[in-house]
Specification:
The protein has about 150 residues and is mainly alpha-helical. The chain has 5 helices and no strands. Among the domains are: about 1-55, no CATH class; about 105-145. Helix 2 packs across helix 3 (about 45-55). The protein is elongated, with a radius of gyration of 44 Å.
Length: about 150
């Protein structure tokens, strides 16, 4: 009768329907010396868990860290290169005569005409923006009709 029970448990085990207690019963059966002849093939399957529990990791792991001098020198070199580039860019921008010319105009009439052109361009952009605001006003009125305050 016990052999019949073990065979049923094996079928359940291979269908992944066994409980932990049933799997323990199978492990205990296959760990014993009186395993049926036709079930001998399953003995390594269940014996592996017992063997794996007894195994221990005995190798030592070195905890020393490697010093990376190359990376330190590489970061120092990168920093020097960045500082050199910023210095060169600053020197170049200060030494060119275009940087001294800030758009100043000596003749007052020409300066007045240029100012009028600039203000006209700004006025066009502002007028376009104000035209768009009429849509917002219409939206606000529609909203107030729907959601009466």
């Amino acid at each position: 009768m016990a052999l019949d029970n073990i065979e049923k448990l094996l079928e359940k085990y291979f269908e992944a329907e066994t409980s932990i207690a049933e799997e323990k019963e199978l492990k205990d059966y296959f760990a014993s010396s009186d395993v049926a002849q036709h079930l001998e093939q399953y003995k390594p399957l269940f014996g592996y868990a017992l063997q794996a529990k007894q195994e221990q990791f005995t190798a030592t792991i070195p905890l020393t860290t490697k010093k990376r001098k190359g990376i330190v020198w590489l970061s120092v070199a990168a920093s020097v290169a960045v500082l050199f580039g910023v210095g060169l860019l600053t020197y170049d921008s200060m030494s060119t005569p275009e940087s001294q010319n800030l758009g100043t105009i000596d003749d007052p009439e020409v300066a007045f005409k240029e100012t009028q052109k600039a203000l006209a361009m700004i006025s066009e952009s502002v007028n376009k923006g104000i035209g768009s605001m009429s849509y917002l006003n219409e939206y606000e009125q529609s909203k107030n009709k729907i959601f009466k305050k």
